[in-house]
């Protein structure tokens, strides 16, 4: 989809300010609040499935259906304490679902 913009003084000044203030690096773009792109080969549906898995981990912990006690920690507590990454938690959760 394309769009034509009339090149008058006002629009020219707006466009120049946008390009002048644009982030120069990927890290600078993330610092300004830009959302990182979806990696190649990954689909929006994959993100939705992962979000559903994370929400189910949180829900089990809130309803006290997880295996938390003083000696063991559930996936939610490990995620909260940053002992494991989100990808590892999803992988473990999928393995547990396969056994059930």
What would you note in describing this structure?
This protein is mainly alpha-helical and 100 residues long. 57% of the residues lie in helices and 0% in strands. The protein contains 5 helices and no strands. It has helices at residues 9-20, 26-31, 44-62, 75-80, 86-99. α3 packs across α5. The radius of gyration is 22 Å and the shape is elongated. The N and C termini lie far apart (48 Å).
Global geometry: elongated
Alpha plus pi helix count: 5
Rg of Cα set: 22 Å
- Main pleated sheet: none
- Average pLDDT over all residues: 84
Low-confidence segments, given as residue ranges, are none
Counting DSSP E segments of at least 2 residues, the number of strands comes to: 0
Tell me the series of helices and strands, N- to C-terminal.
Answer: HHHHH
Measured between the Cα atoms of the first and last residue, the distance is 48 Å
Residue share in β-strands: under 5%
SSE class: mainly alpha
What share of the residues lie within helices?
55-70%
Gist of the model:
The protein has 100 residues and is mainly α.
Top keywords for this entry?
mainly alpha, 100 residues, elongated
SSE topology:
Elements: H1 9-20, H2 26-31, H3 44-62, H4 75-80, H5 86-99
